[in-house]
Design brief:
single chain; mainly alpha; two-stranded antiparallel sheet
Amino acid sequence: MSRAALWLTFAAAASIVLSIAAFNILMALALAALLFSGEPIRLPPIKLPLGIFLLLTVAAWIFSPDPWMDGFPQIRKFWIFCFLLLVFSTLRSLVVLRWLFLAWAGLASIAALRGFVQFFTKVEQAHQAGIDLYQYYVAERITGFTSNWNTYAAEEMFAFLVLAAMLFFGLRMRKSWIWILCGVLMAVALYLGWTRAVWLATAAAGLYLAWFWKRWMVFSIPLLAVVAFFVSPAVLRERVTSVLRPQQVDSNTFRIIAWNAGIQMIEKHPLLGLGPEGPKYHFKEYVPADIWATRPAGFYEHLHNVYLQYGAERLPAIRRRTRHPCAAGFSLADDSDFGRFRARPSCAPARSRRPPLPAARRHRGRDCRDGRRCRGSEPGRFRSSHHVSGRDRRRLSRLGKGPVYRPMNRAARWLCSSGSE
């Protein structure tokens, strides 16, 4: 039974690329085989955070406005966490894990081929309907064997990065050209998927892998990206440039509305949120009527940000006015200006509960109270750098010039301007 549990877990992990139903069936069979095998059940060392997360989810569900309608599907998904037990209890061999990663690569390549067929089918449908391809395809992207293009793009990204790590750092594989071809298919599928967040995540992870493999590759990857951009069709280049110059059909504008609504949800329900899936059913209540009437096209059933989503659903807010990393440097406007963020000027002081520094330490270039010359106000210096050790001072000097929040404000102003187009 232990071997049955092993290979059923292997099949379940590999089948997720093709079918969620097959994954659930194989997972149930693997769990039954593991329980009857008598093998020790292992769990990764995340018992405390996992238990807290599950407990808060149950509490948020119980105290939600309508538990049986709003969040019960999320409670049923606790079943998925059993897969942690299966993986850590059965997949204990590096050889089996290596075969699992290669299985992901092979199945993701098949899903990529299906995505190619879907892409050319949608291009033909757009031409037959006389609709601009960009306008049509943004809302009808390729999904492979899944039902959502974000899920499809994420699966292709994970399989691509795992395969790249194996090719870079793993054992030498026979007929490696086959796996290189699989990587090319997945890369093209990612490009045709038009999921910009996945593009950025893949680029960041790819640069990380290249840096630890051959550092000269870090400088060649941007060059290859520029070449791919200029040889691409105009519609694909238009999608890339939409990161900076979005169109009305792009998600830049409606994401700001969704984030603002999520912050309002957290401020009004800071303890346990609205309950699992609460933002889906109460989204409209947190958007003023005039903004809702003129809202751009988009999906308004979740907040398009996992941190805000969990904060609005089930996790207690650390602060009353919750700040999200993507909204760093923003301050909320009043209800009449809902949906737009106002960037705080870089010269404005950050909000802080700490008392102001004494006058003897606020000046520049004068002697401090201890008789030494103060350099804490110079650019790129820690404010009280002469009160730390020399080694820590050298580390701090390598962090960059200027205050940390200054680039955040530049990003905030850019997002504000692009979202209002």
